[in-house]
Write a structure and sequence with these properties.
MetI-like fold
């Protein structure tokens, strides 16, 4: 036991190496929170476009006009975005953003936020689209009876209900995003995983630093999973 404590002191306390883990932990949280925010914004926009096209395609096609053509083009762009982002590895997208798109960037954290946000947006968009499509068409008719146009109905009636329906799934996407950010070290970002690897490289002790990193991820995910479970139970109670 004494030897283990001495080893812990050597790995984390000598040269204040524990500060690397602290910095990596907060960078991981910053990347995750920023990426989720971007993902939610992109997801709402893409899901609204895709669901609007799917729900109104036949009617708008019969009417014709420039409105249908514009929506069809934007919908096609959204489908290409979803196909490309969901069909390529996130680490490749991250490297493209860092080494090609933002090649002059000095700080990798904003680049990682952007890359993971773009990636998350594709998955969040499909979550939101499924939520919107699950809302009964009677809700759209109720909006029209109140004098709302389609976009006002989406904003004031459909999207609030959609958020309630997909909130647990969205929280699970947040949990998955936390674990996905562990590849941010590929572009030199000092996230939690990268920090643990740096400590291991400096001390030549891989067991303790990497096990500590794994334990921190496990604690974060366990806490969030518990919160999601409580949220789902509360939502079920509110529906009764």
């Amino acid at each position: 036991m004494t030897e283990f404590i001495e080893e812990l002191k050597f790995v984390f306390l000598d040269d204040n190496r524990y500060k690397l883990l602290v910095e990596g932990f907060f960078n991981t949280l910053k990347i995750t929170a920023g990426a989720l925010l971007i993902g939610v914004v992109i997801g709402i926009v893409v899901a609204a476009i895709r669901s609007s096209y799917d729900k109104n395609k036949e009617t708008m096609k019969l009417r014709g006009g420039i409105g249908y053509r514009v929506l069809a083009v934007i919908n096609a762009i959204c489908k290409v975005y979803l196909t490309v982002i969901r069909g390529t590895p996130v680490v490749v997208q991250l490297m493209i953003c860092y080494f090609i798109v933002f090649v002059s960037a000095q700080d990798g954290v904003p680049v990682a936020i952007f890359a993971f946000g773009i990636n998350s947006g594709a998955y969040v968009a499909e979550i939101f689209r499924a939520g919107i499509m699950s809302i009964d068409n009677g809700q759209f008719e109720a909006g029209r009876s109140l004098g709302f146009n389609y976009f006002q109905t989406m904003r004031y009636i459909i999207i609030p209900q959609m958020f309630k329906a997909v909130l647990p799934t969205l929280c699970n996407e947040f949990i998955a995003l936390i674990k996905e950010t562990s590849v941010a070290g590929y572009v030199g970002v000092s996230d939690l995983t990268k920090s643990g690897n740096v400590i291991a490289g400096r001390t030549f002790e891989y067991f303790i630093p990497l096990l500590t990193v794994a334990a921190i991820y496990l604690i974060i995910v366990s806490l969030l999973t518990s919160l999601v479970g409580k949220l789902e139970r509360r939502l079920r109670k509110s529906e009764r």
